[in-house]
Amino acid sequence: MYPYYESDWSVLPPEANRRFNPAFNMATIKQVVNEAIERVRMPTPMRLRDLIRQIRAARTAAEERSVVNKECAYIRSTFREEDSVWRCRNIAKLLYIHMLGYPAHFGQLECLKLIASPRFTDKRIGYLGAMLLLDERQDVHLLITNCLKNDLNSATQFVVGLALCTLGAIASPEMARDLAGEIERLMKSPNAYIRKKAALCAFRIIKRVPELMEIFLPATRSLLSEKNHGVLITGVTLITEMCENSPDTLSHFKKIVPNLVRILKNLILAGYSPEHDVSGVSDPFLQVKILKLLRVLGINDVDASEAMNDILAQVATNTETSKNVGNTILYETVLSIMDIKSEGGLRVLAVNILGRFLLNNDKNIRYVALNTLLRTVHVDTSAVQRHRSTILECLKDPDVSIRRRAMELSFALVNAQNIRTMMKELLAFLEKTDPEFKAQCSSAIVLAAERYAPNKRWHLDTLLKVLVAAGNYVRDDVISSTIQLISDSSSQQSYVSLQLFKALSEDHQNRQPLTQIAVWSIGEYGDLLLQATPDEENGIVPPTEDEVIELYQKLLWSPQNTVTTKQYTLMSLTKLSTRFNNTNNKIQQIISSFCSSLHVELQQRGVEYSQLFGKYSHLRPPLLERMPPMELTRSQADNGQTNGDVSDPEMRSVDNSPRHNVHSESNALLDLLGGTDSTSDLDVMKISQPVAQPVSNTNNQDLLDLLGLGPISSTPTTDTGGNNLGLIMENNNSNALISNQNSNFLSGDLFSSTAIERNVPTLTAYNKDGLQIVFSLNKIPDSNTLSINVTTTNNTLSTMTDYIFQVAVPRTFQLQMLSPSGTVLSPNGNVTQDLKVTNPSRNSLKMKVRLSYLIDGNPVQDQVEVNNFPADIWD
Amino acid sequence: MIKAILVFNNHGKPRLSKFYQYFPEDMQQQIIKETFQLVSKRDDNVCNFLEGGSLIGGSDYKLIYRHYATLYFVFCVDSSESELGILDLIQVFVETLDKCFENVCELDLIFHVDKVHFILNELVMGGMVLETNMTEILTRIEDQNKMEKQEVSSLVYLIIILIVYCLGWDNSGSCPSSLGRQKHEHSPADKRHQTPRLAAGHQGLEILTSNSQGFPKPSVAPVSPSLPFGVSSRRTLFC
Questions:
Q1: CB A848 within 8 A of CB A805
Q2: C-alpha distance from A328 to closest chain B C-alpha (Å)
Q3: Is-annotated flag, keyword Transport (chain B) (predicted)?
Q4: Where does residue A317 rank: exposed (0-12), middle (13-18), buried (19+ CB within 10 A)?
Q5: Which segments of A580-713 does DSSP mark as H helices, in order?
Q6: Are A370 and A409 in contact (CB under 8 A)?
Q7: Which pLDDT tens digit goes with each residue over B188-204?
Q8: A465-523 pLDDT, tens per residue?
Q9: Is B181 on the interface with A (CB under 8 A)?
Q10: Is A774 in contact with A790 (CB distance < 8 Å)?
């Protein structure tokens, strides 16, 4: 029998395609021959191999481009001519060109034509091209659905295989819906080759359209009773995906734990089988997948965990670890033991395995050990603490990946007992590490020091070392918090300014944060600096006035310092004029030289400050008096938390709204309230731009600090100098003037300073995922207006950006929102915003709150209803 | 899930790229470039995992790679995959290629990209592991190649018979051949001189696997300096 009688081998176009057929007579043979002659007569396109040769022979990139462009042009022209004979070869060339990075999208339709061809060679290339060139963003991909459907029903297993493979790679939701039925049928096919591919197709379909999970459930269950490892591995993958997708399915599949245990046991106990053996271990891939599924099934489930304990112990003890594959399985086992509710003994075993991993010579194993320890450190800190010295050792590893993991883990291990030793190591690490780590590492050190510092002196020393070691990589919030800390610890001020002076005079090249903090504290505590007790240990003696001024001159004329730093320096220098006795002339000279500075900011300061040396010199001492100790902003965050604790549990129940309506339309906010109010027309206000206003209490403080506008209770300012001071205050905010009688203006409550005396009721409106929102309510007397100060605190370790807070109230209320103090929440930082709600009809207040922010680049949106305002609030 | 599988040589020239998540064409090239820059600057004695690529997936994403002679095999995966498991998978992939091409080298990958894709499609599908049994993969590939060959040979057969019989056509013209079938177009000797083998020298995979860790150190195989490397290195640079 000649091969061309078989349908699958047919070389003829579909309309001429016939099986063995008595009509295969001389006439048709002649027709075929004519076609064949046509093929031979036409100019043959270049073969793929020759194209690759030509491209390789190109000596410059331009030459390569010209070869490719020429060939692309040729391929395009053949596509236009509907030349079907060489299509397959042309697409193959196009795919090669695509890989090199040239545009190849014009081949998409040709791929579809190849797929429709009856020849297997054509189909193979066509499907390959479809996988590489098509995507669901283009409408063309829907045209493939019908071809896929036909091929899924083909009698040849490889054609079905190709179709499944393509569907598994590019299925879109529409395609998934159309073809789910076919896939379900193929999952029950007697052919293992098809079954395993169908299982992964189902995986893709469920990923795209989770609702379709139902129809696959029965077929999936039977995949586990399979002998073929390919089917088993894909089946386990599919079940894992289903379980992670829906809790219902998870409980449905709890039943299969014994089956999985049995399969795993067979794998371990089975002798050598050449097919699945990978360096002496029987199918590690399947073992890993099963261990992972066991983990998913065993989380928070005592019974399931109980059933797994034995087998996990067996795997952990029986696996041979001289090869990478053995370690792969052990690694997965440890992860499973740590995640499920396993026995204590088993956990000890797991941590010991990790300890062994840490000492392993193979860097890969060390890396995964650190990774796993990082995941388990929250579960069992003491176990991980035992490996502390090894982990610290890893900080010195030449490998970036290991160093990064070791750093994260070290910070997780810091506590009050070991902070001194850990910090020594971490500071040494910070000094030597690559720039990419410096910002993260310095912030983490600052946070850890803040939490566990044994005393203030140590804390300040650590901060100083961070500033020196991390240079310009220190984040801005460190500057303000350090300044606050210095101002708050009065006993250490002379010591700190001496140390800072030392650091500054040794090395003032391009460490802006250090310079800024140093000049601030020298300016503020200049007199203390001169009288500081010498530091015998390090041989630091207090400088003379001239030495200080000389240093300032250097700073001011150094081209490396930024304008902001120079502004700090100028301000500080002005302050020094009241702290120092003998160098006033010199200071005045320096400042007046800035009257003609090219930079407008510096010039303005120069002019303003020189006024203080001339006509208004009597104002200078009171203006530049020392600042009162600043409260730490962080402590405000703590207050917020305690406030939250005081409020009754019902108030917190508002937090329990489900989180998955993250992407709800903004109208949802309106609809929700519409239910309670017949007229659903609401005032929704959205303020997304932060406006620098003194309502904030953190960022702008620096500015106020700079000017030294402490509690200027000396009244001449307001009595005589309203106009005169205008100059000084011009680029400050006039609110500072008004508030300077109020000594606690730093607490930020400028807005309702009159009502602050009252016992302010607070309520926690929101507390989830480390974001806490506290309302402090203030009824403005003799009106129907309630002023709400909203404090949002970020209790996570990551920075939240683009924070937007929106509020809606029923229509009977009037809502006025002031600008927030910012849109960025640094770890433990906060943002405040004031709302005013007017309630003419004295209804009980309800509020919808919607918020959105970006954390680690991921958008988060949520909304809650706040209806637990105290009833007596309007009285 | 595996997000992408990239193979490129020591100069960053792509030899295989397969994305299981959609990226526009120019983005794909950027990803390859960035990945090459990240991976190529790493020593051979550091670990095979790398974080910090900014283009795919953000923080939940890792590069896991092995370096064989002149080629880097890079798998970009998310956190749901076991790092060590993927290393094993790369090894299976390379060993399969080695068995399929008999002593695989970079040139094989260059001239038979389609074949490499077909093998990969039997190993990984839609970003998930499909089959890890090498023998099974090879039989399936062989079967499919046979199908192609039969199609071609039947066509050639038909043409020759009919042409000779009916028209007496001179069949010296070239016949449509299947893609990448003629592996021996570039002679084996030629191949050996141009590019160092992935597996070290003529001992091939033996050396790969007899290493104490079971898998080869991802190191540049001992390319003997006596190879006529001058010409060929310039050629590989531009292709």
A1: no
A2: 5
A3: yes
A4: exposed
A5: 584-593, 600-613, 620-623, 633-646, 649-652, 667-674, 701-707
A6: yes
A7: 444 444 555 554 333 43
A8: 888 888 888 888 888 888 888 888 878 888 888 888 888 877 656 788 888 888 888 88
A9: no
A10: yes
